[in-house]
Amino acid sequence: MTDTVPNNTYGKVSGTWEKAQSAYVKVSGVWQEVDEIYAKRFGDWKLVFISFAATPYVTLSGGSSGTFTVPIGANAIHIQSAVAGGGGAAGGADYDKAGGESAGAGGGSGAYISDKVATVFDGTPYSYEIGTGGAPGNQTSNYNQPRVASAGTHTKLIDESTAFRFPLFDLYPGGGSSGTGGGVQGPLRTNTRGSAGPNWESFVHFTTGTFKDTDGIMKSVTTLTDGPVGVFNQMGTGAVGELSGTGNCGGDNCSIAGFNGGASYAGNIAGGSGGSIGSAGSAGTRGSGGGGGSASPTAYNGAAGGAGEIKYRFLRVFD
After folding, report:
1. Nearest of 86, 62, 59, 58 to residue 74 by alpha carbon
2. What Å distances lie between residue 262 and 115, 147, 279, 304, 306, CA to CA?
3. Which CA distances in Å does 55 have to 115, 120, 260, 289?
4. Cβ contacts of residue 271 below 8 Å, gap of 6+?
5. What is the distance between the alpha carbons of residues 316 and 319, in angstroms, rounded to a whole number?
6. Is the sign of the CA dihedral 165, 166, 168, 174 positive or negative?
7. DSSP code of 297?
8. Which listed site, 19, 33, 83, 88, has its alpha carbon 20 to 30 Å from 65?
């Protein structure tokens, strides 16, 4: 049978109709929980109740794409974590008697979701695209001028049941940082931090209700707080990469450290570290921005942004 299940099934309890969350039948004198109930309607057996426990989590990694179908009995998808790719960071730049040196600004982080529960319909196919982290800006031509990092890419979940292909959500990536307008003998370049990724959602989400967890216990959706933010029902933009002042130090052969990438998941996942004096930046993780390279006076490389992700499971929520 492939029939979808009604969102609510009712049974009479002490003369009052109540929504059924579980059903039992006595077998050889012992009450046992029923997995499915069928009823005959117009001569055909129809599935009218399913005892649906939360499915195991599935993690989708950065750069992957594919499809899945909402299982029969589910009416909600729990997005424990989702984030777009973080922006890459520019490397530092050195000069020939230009009166200073330049550090790389941090890349921006991607938009995110943490512990949101969205309404879905069982049997609906979805496609997914998971963002990649942006490449660092470590160009070497023209004496490292300019150095421009790439933005990350989108993380999105798309309803494939109609030709409209309407996204359930579309998380925008963090922007890459850059150092432009400089020359080996001056002027010093202009450093620009990576931008924050905005978010976009279209789904109806549950803010109350109960579901049967994998341990068989009925729980409130508000207890879902194991995502990166640690608070139920969170969604937001990314963060800009770090930059202090112009990102240039004064004086030939001066030293300046690179700048950190923007943190993702509302500050809960740190951005890549800017390179300390004499070091390259470090890569972002989980949608955070890459760290910029230092200059001392040798120029050191910036790093890539963190890849996106989605971690999800299916629930049947009773309102």
Report:
1. 58
2. 21, 19, 19, 12, 10
3. 15, 14, 38, 32
4. 86, 106, 107, 109, 239, 241, 242, 260, 261, 262, 263, 264, 284, 288, 289, 290, 291, 306
5. 10
6. positive
7. S
8. 88
Of all helices (H) and strands (E), which one includes residue 142?
helix 141-144
C-alpha span between 103 and 39 (Å, rounded): 70
H/E segment holding residue 317: strand 317-318
In the chain, what percentage of residues exceed pLDDT 90? 80
Q: What tokens does 295 get?
A: 């200059």
Averaged confidence pLDDT in the chain? 91
Helix (H) or strand (E) holding 33: strand 30-33
Tokens of 118: 């969205």
pLDDT value, residue 178: 98
Number of H helices and E strands in the chain, helices first, is 1, 24
Residue located via tokens 């890569």: 283
Task: Enter the DSSP assignment of 278.
Answer: T
| pLDDT tens track for 122-145 | 999 999 999 999 999 999 999 999
Q: Which residues lie below 8 Å from residue 256, measured CB to CB, with a gap of 6+?
A: 92, 101, 102, 103, 247, 248, 249, 277, 294, 295, 296
* Candidate from 72-81, 203-212, 251-260 with smallest mean pLDDT: 203-212
- Can you tell me the distance from the alpha carbon of 96 to that of 17, in angstroms, rounded to the nearest whole number? 83
